Amino acid sequence: MMRLISTCCVIAMAVSLGSGCGSSIPDDAPLIARQPRISPDYSDVVIPPNIAPLNFVIEEEGDDFAVRISGESGSSVMVASMDGDIRIPERAWKTLLAQNKGKKLSIVVYVHRQGGWLRLSAIENTVAHDRIDPYVVYRWMRNLHHFHERLYLMQRSLESFEESVVLDNKSIGGECINCHTFFNGRTDMMTYQVRSGDFGLPMMLVKDDEVTPIDTRTSGFSKSPAAFTSWHPSGKLMAFSVNRVSPFEHTVGQTRGEWDNDSDLALYLVASNRVTSTSGISDPMRRETWPAWSADGKKLYFSSAPQLPFNEFRNVRYDLMQIPFDASTMEWGVPEVLVSSDKVKMSCVEPRVSPDDKWVVFCGCEYGNMACFLKSSDLHILNTQTGAHHKLDVNSELSESYPTWSRNGRWISFVSKRRDGLLSHIYFSHFDKSGKAHKPFILPQRDPRYYDSCARTYNRPELAVAPVRITGSALAKDICEPDETIEPPKSFNRANRKDVSQPLPSMEWGRQ
Amino acid sequence: MDKRTRQLLYIPVALSAWLFIWAIMDFQIRHHSRRRPFLFDGDFIAPFLRYVAGPIDCLASLVTQLYFYPWLGALIIFAVLVTIFISTTVVLLSFRQMSEKSVERPFFQVAVLPAAMGLFLLAQHISVFPLLSFAFSLGMAAVYVGCSFLSVKMRPALFAGMAIIVSYVSGGTVLLLTLICALYEFFRQRQRLPALGYLVFGASIHFVICTVLFEPNRMLQFFIGAPLEASSPDFHPLETIWYAIVPVVIVGTVYAKHLQRVIRVLRVSGIVAVCLMGAVMADYRFNRYDPMVLDYYAEKGDWDNALDYAQRYSSKASIMTAHIVNHALYHTGRLPDDMFDFPQFRDGRVLFLGVGDKEQDISSRAANRRSDVYYHLGRIDQAERWANEVLSSQGFHGFVLRRLVSINVLKNRPRAARVYAGVMQKTITHRSQANELIAQFNNGELLKTDDEISDIRRLLPKVDYVGEWTARDLLTQQLREAPDNQMAFEYLMAHFLITGNINEFGRNVHRVESFGYQALPRAYEEACVVYMLATGKRPPDLGLNVQEDTLERFRRFMAVIEKYDRDQRQAWDILQPDFGNTYWFFKVFGRSGSVPPPSFDRKKTKL
Fold first, then answer.
1. CATH topology (fold) of B347-486
2. B58 CA to chain A: closest CA distance, Å?
3. What's the rounded mean pLDDT across residues B322-335?
4. Ranges of CATH 1.25.40.10 domains, chain B
5. B468 at the A interface (CB within 8 A)?
6. Are B119 and B272 in contact (CB under 8 A)?
7. Which of A161, A187, B150, B595 has its CA 20 to 30 A from that of A281?
8. How far is CA B208 from the centre of its chain?
9. pTM of the prediction?
10. What ipTM, to 2 d.p.?
């Protein structure tokens, strides 16, 4: 009720400001020479010209608040608030951004205190020329440990606050869904994984409106199902990993940890329904994971680490590798270490290649391959032409993970735990032509206080050029009652393949 | 009696009914045990709108949360029952002209039956979800028969609209609506063909809606809320009778030749049935062991009541009882002395409900209790893990959210603690607590002066223990990290006693002196006697002595054991009154004397 009253007051105040009573805030209000504290922190950031309003809360003392948002071109937007919640009108915001592409956007905060208005130093943001892909698709769930009951595959328009459920796991009996991957950001061609006691462990292939479960295990490559996938730019094949992941707990620091007991990579050829691999990406002496194709499809990037037992989990560090591949002949080259974990003393995982093939963004963490569970994880960038790499300027003291590129290569999206140290949230950073990543900003929400009471974590954000059109019911039906599950023919046997499903060393059980 | 007097009588009748509901429904326990969270939050409510019967499910969650205030819970249930009663009356009265016009009052009394039976089922067997579904469907049926003034062409349209709404809102109960409407058309309006059409349409449209809002178990989804799917968690066979009352009475009304007489019989048997149900409900409420009561006391930290309840119903004790008892005994400072006065079992799962146990109980109740015991031990990683398991499986519960606030403060994540307090703010039960916590957060003093937090912070491990640990490993680690961790010590000793590891007990019992004990606690003293018997020497480094009268009692105990060494059953019977609360008794029989004896398949009695 208080929120409603407050909203009404805000509307009334905004109307009065808009109708000329705004003169009650003097232009020469005394200046406090510092920037205001606002939450989320939307100061000194570069934003896309098509982003939804960056609503925020003014965390300053005061009994009334007002904000003037103006650009170098066009008129300004005035927003008033009694509780410090600033909700920017969508239409005015869009106009403002459109008029100020490539220019500065100034946010001036006014607070009313002890009978008078005060003005704080302006926050200066920049509106980039480069648009961001209009949708982001992510997993949304509680802070999971071993069990999960309810999780969602969600999509959110970045140009508005429109959000919808792609797949609610209640419609598949509460089973796990993960690792959604789009072909070139196209949502009409995607894969995601299902882990279900009742419906098996298929990789779901969505092509146009057809959903097909594929059980890669029948190929004999591994008893483990496909996990992390990457579409080849031709759309004819995909690389996938098979992993044996199980959770555990730390008594100090971040509680949840994850151990990948073994992993390998293979290719799934869509048209011929075949699984193939090579020793360069499925070496029995190493664990290979996190496949990522280069934009031209001639190289497969991945992470690779030596086989070590669980009690040495802190020593499991992954190298960043690449292996040449010729899609026309299906021939592999020799794998090459791009970033040696021994040299940099960190584990290099989750590589993602920029659409222009010039950059590879990846996570560097103390050990292991699940960066989201490691406080030490930071985003790094590799210049594919020079081989040089460095830490990006977007990192925090806490975990950064799951980086991904926009289709124009000018935006990096990732999740970070910087806000509270526990829950992951989606951030975006502008990556300019010089290879500089700018200060990131959090996914804006209609309610500026949204994150203060959202005890859910965002996982694996993937930027997309269009919303997922296929309905959740259709996706669920094809998981639970598929017309046919595609089973690639057996092409591996014990002689040419190690068994990756060896029992886990003293790990706990879990449904994931 | 004139009409006005009769109307005035409704007030005390209604008041009595409300008080009766309040008395026989233990609303606090129901609120606790039903584990249906509700948040005033769009993100919480939206998922309910995506599946068949989700809206009623959401309402059921809200009502269950309102049980927290028993008077309000009783009022809501009363209102639902009145809705059922009025709807039944309206439906039945719409058929009365079929036979006799003078039967209005008896009908009125027969109409009490579905409401009374609904309360009976709610009190003992079902959650509020089927009750709300039933009330909604019956209410819609009443609206339908009340719209008799509509034309023959309009009524099918009304029915179609209602069927779609009921199918989506309350699931399988659309079949009840369909049946009543079809009967109404068939008998009352003499529209035979449309009546059949109603049956086909009602079932078909529900099937279509179930297909659109797909869920894997089609049968369960189709009959959700209705009593026709036995695999439904809320199903009870009596529900079928409950659902059948109205249609059966309708058909009976039509075909009974001597309606007055039939209704008279129904009235008498109805009154008897209602009285019987009242008696059964009262007995169920006041004389039944409910493990959730113990869980409720444990969650509230009401340890004295937990111990009283466990003792009162010790004959029904389980591993969970023993788990809660040990936790309660620790908090009341009685664990080393009185642990065998209460239900105990020789079972390694007692203290932690299984550690590293592949078959461990993973219900939310067990998860919650585990989180609680790990929290008080200072093993915050496991406390956090199990609290999150409760959230994952059961949703946002006030108690668990509050626990996560504390855990995150202990983990130096105040902003994460603030997030959980923010969610608490959206609950019905923990709103004021949340406001207080958020105010503290805003002042930068979140739980800074909280004694419990200070105590536990002292116990937190500084070494990162990663792996799968036994109970003994875990307790030893906690003691290593904080040698003054009294709970860890007492639990370690209890673990040795429960698992019969008397040598380890003897090696460690000397540490009792560092916790300020001037004399050996009773259970330890008795265990020391066993240690001495087994090893022939005193426990090393133990400065405290075993009392002479304890040794004397032990001699008497052993005399009986030796006498009945081939008849365990008789030994139990003789020893249980005097020695049932001793460690010796537990050591021999594998359980304390307060629980029922085991099946004696072994003949020999041996210490």
1. 1.25.40
2. 15
3. 97
4. 347-486
5. yes
6. no
7. A187
8. 35
9. 0.92
10. 0.91
